[in-house]
Design goal:
The protein is of the alpha/beta class. The chain is built from 9 helices and 7 strands, in the order βαβαβαβαβααβαααβ. Helix 1 crosses helix 9, helix 3 runs parallel beside helix 4 and helix 4 runs parallel beside helix 6. It starts with 9 loop residues before the first strand and ends in a 6-residue tail after the last strand. 46% of the residues are buried. The structure holds NADP nicotinamide-adenine-dinucleotide phosphate. The site of NADP nicotinamide-adenine-dinucleotide phosphate (NAP) has 32 residues, from helix 1, strand 2, helix 4 and helix 7. The site of NADP nicotinamide-adenine-dinucleotide phosphate has 32 residues, from helix 1, strand 2, helix 4 and helix 7.
Length: 249
């Protein structure tokens, strides 16, 4: 894989203001891509842009709440007007609203589904036609091992990520004839703001169940994205790549 094998590629990473999304954006830029980085807040991706400044590709910030169809539509129009194409789409934006099922509110269920499942649906809708017309593209959905195994206290989140797996496989089948691959990356426990909220004693227990003996880093997920976007990943579609240090094997 040449270090700049993504030169001339245009990528979109949703939820790139921090954590896994930021690491993915940085890695894509390091491999030469032009990367549109989104956050729900104006200025939310400033630190990400600074992390990408060394190139050789470049990062551009955009504001978009992926659960809002109007905002996603405007993002699509703006991006395609500005760049004329999209080669790599990474649906990374995601949230948790954890709680035991008996106390889980409808609002917490709906919010998580709106961001984690409806969001990727809307973003795929905004760009898949262009990718299909170009007869090439890579869609990477960031799921979770929780979508495969379920997790007490995360019924909403697990349902959203299991749904994302169904969306991934269906879209992979629909777009394969147009040479667009669609895959799911399922991270295990990755050290980001999202997992920083987990109490220390719970984290210690989780660590014991990770055969590789460490929590994942955002860069571990970024490496999987780079692989699936490379020529080496061109014959892989509709698959789930679990990146969890062996936690769920
Ligand atoms: P994080 O640090 O909390 O970052 C979440 C990102 O999503 C932020 O950039 C946030 O942007 C963005 N976001 C949230 N709601 C959004 C919305 N409605 N529209 C657009 N962007 C939105 O999370 P992370 O740990 O990096 O997780 C990234 C992805 O990996 C998520 O899909 C998550 O479910 C998945 N994942 C994480 C882990 C883990 O252990 N960390 C494990 C499995 C899967 P702003 O706040 O700036 O708007």
């Amino acid at each position: 894989m040449s270090p700049t094998h993504l030169q001339n590629k245009v990528a979109l990473v949703t939820g790139a203001s921090r954590g896994i999304g930021r690491a993915i954006a940085v890695a894509l830029v390091q491999h030469g891509a032009t990367v549109v980085c989104t956050s729900t807040k104006a200025g939310g991706c400033e630190d990400t842009l600074a992390c990408c400044a060394a190139g050789p590709g470049k990062a551009i910030a955009a504001v978009c709440d992926v659960s809002d169809s109007e905002q996603v539509e405007s993002l699509g129009k703006w991006l395609l007007d500005a760049h004329g194409r999209l080669d790599i789409l990474v649906n990374n934006a995601g949230i948790t609203r954890d709680g035991v099922f008996l106390r889980m509110s409808e609002e917490d269920f709906d919010q998580v589904l709106a961001t984690n499942l409806r969001g990727p649906f809307l973003v795929c809708k905004a760009f898949s036609r262009t990718m299909a017309k170009a007869r090439g593209g890579r869609i990477l959905n960031i799921g979770s091992v929780v979508g495969l195994t379920g997790n007490a206290g995360q019924a909403n989140y697990a349902a959203s990520k299991a749904g994302l797996l169904g969306l991934t496989k269906s879209l992979a089948k629909e777009l394969s004839g147009r040479n667009v691959t669609v895959n799911l990356i399922a991270p295990g426990f990755i050290a980001t703001d999202m997992t920083a909220q987990i109490p220390e004693e719970l984290r210690a227990g989780m660590l014991k169940n990770i055969p590789l003996g460490r929590f994942g880093q955002p860069e571990d997920i970024a490496a999987a994205v780079i692989f699936l976007c490379s020529d080496a990943g061109s014959y892989i579609t509709g698959q789930t790549l679990v990146v969890d240090g062996g936690m769920t094997m």
